[in-house]
Amino acid sequence: MKSSRFNDLPAQNALSIFYTAGYPRLHDTLPILEKLQDAGVAMVEIGFPFSDPVADGPTIQASNLRAIENGMNLSVLFEQLRDLRPSITIPVLLMGYLNPVEQFGVERFLQEAARCGVDGVILPDMPFEEYQDRYKPLFKGTDIKPVFLVTSRTDEARIKAFDAEEPAFLYVLSSDSVTGGQVAVSESRETFFKRLADMKLRSTLIVGFGVTDRASFVAVTKHTHGAIVGSAFVKALAALPALNAERSEIAKTELIENFILGLR
Amino acid sequence: MKVEVSERGFFGEFGGAYVPEMLYPNVKELQQRYRAVIDEVGFQRELRELLHDYAGRPTPLFKARKLSARYNTEILLKREDLLHTGSHKINNTLGQILLAKRLGRTRIIAETGAGQHGVATATVCALMGLHCVVYMGEVDMARQALNVARMRLLGAEVRGVSSGSKTLKDATNEAMRDWIANPHDTHYIIGSVVGPHPFPDMVARFQSVISAEIAQQCEERGGRRPTHVIACVGGGSNAMGAFYHFVDDERVKLIGVEAAGCGLASGRSAATTALGKSGILHGSRTLFMQTSDGQVEEAHSISAGLDYPGIGPQHAYLHVSGRVSYVSVTDQESLMGARILARDEGIIPALESAHAIAYLSQAELTPEDRVVVIVSGRGDKDMETYIKSFGEGISDEI
After folding, report:
1. Which of A20, A48, A54 to probe the B interface (max B CBs under 10 A)?
2. Do A176 and B182 touch (CB under 8 A)?
3. Active site residue ranges of A
4. Which architecture does CATH list for A4-263?
5. Average pLDDT of span B146-155
6. What's the gap between Cα B289 and its chain centre?
7. pTM attached to this predicted model
8. Integer angstrom CA distances of residue B72 from A111, A161, B211, B360
9. Which position among B68, B78, B80, B89 bears the catalytic label?
10. ipTM for the whole complex
11. Per-residue pLDDT at A179
12. DSSP designation for B85
């Protein structure tokens, strides 16, 4: 088995970006990924769209619907990601809801993802018990790693059970909310992050949901290994003007560079 | 056969609890406690009293003579439309509000399509003094304005949902998002036999009073069990309640009537068993209408309460096993059903219930049959649609 690209994640302040495949335009998926890598992002989550994303706020809901209208689906996505490697060297994960994956076929989905060089998969509505009973052998048949979500209400035994499954990382939720909220880093939140850090888990801890800017990034990564910025980036992409192809590429590069710089 | 839920919340291959981790503690707490709470003697007594004194149970089982003559069989109408708030929905909301109180929740959220479940939730929240927020698609708010006004008068906050198709499925998404954001003080009163385990089983238990009464009322009329039980199916709560105690008696034919909308092949339909596929929606594995990519399709029915792309997991199971026959009638046929019931029996049904009535004209029935049809709700909320649809012809002969 080849060594995992997750081993190369920086031990501190790993910046990860989430965006929706096929958004704002169908063929933006790979160019955005390349520009994110160039801008120094440590890891990327690419969302594949679903019509009814219950864990997402208005920004990602809207990007999902637009992506579907643009013609994005899993077949198109895998076609776009076929030549991901070797030019992309950072870890890439796919994130989305279970139903499109089930209709595509879970095994086929994992195999196609592995063939493209995808490293991990995040399926927020896949129950952990279902993973263990039903999907784990399929994951094990590829090099694709799962990711499990941890909230401040997830009990310790359950967190340890997640950790024992050797996930790509533990996706630590910064708040009780859907994506796109504002993280209010409070004392209790910090206690939660510290409690996780003190558990000395094997898994990397990456915080997400409501991380929008430098201040929130710094605050949530004090006791963890990194954070994911999603809705704020998708919102920034929405501001891309409709330009001709060449100018649009330049504008996109500038926008992404500036956005990442703003987080550093 | 029986419709028994497994420990993980499955009925055959359908059901389960496909929720993100944010909802896991809430759903787990309900899974662990719902049976103990609702089986407890004090709970049962309180619920029975409220159903009797407040909601108006038992509801009559009325022998519809002209309807019987029209279809040359014996037709008995289960009058859920006579309940307080105008539909069967209050059977469930009374049960769940008592549960929420015992779990220490102070804030209630609900989704609603036609507004009947929203009104039933707002009503019990007023009764119990709990804060109530109802999510309703903006399309539904426009076509069910009367129910919006009722909810507001009852003190509930009605939040319009402008995402997706702006109907019931989107209102359900938004209610789940609210629950994710407010897990500590909030209980989500789901209005149908849908959602993650234990909701389908719990709602079915609260609605099962319908079939318990039917069985008893048939007993009182010479002991002959019904040969047929017919109910409309959106998510399927009144149907599940009506079928519940008859599922294990194979002699009773159970028929669920879905909304064909403009017709099965029209692309504007809500007939899930005919058009749906297995997948995961709103927390459970069930049948729903979706594209080959697994995107949920928008349903259409003239009836806002049937305008849902899926059915509950028990119905998916009962369909696949063949125990229940699922059929469908169109918007136009349901309008005729409503007019027939109004003229023959002096009962103006909700458009949802009119689907069950409309099916009688296609059913193969004999004079020896005893057919129970569920009138799940009353038609006041649908008067605007009736006026629009019948126009000048509202007083025409059938």
Report:
1. A54
2. yes
3. 45, 56
4. Alpha-Beta Barrel (3.20)
5. 96
6. 18
7. 0.96
8. 60, 63, 24, 11
9. B89
10. 0.94
11. 86
12. G
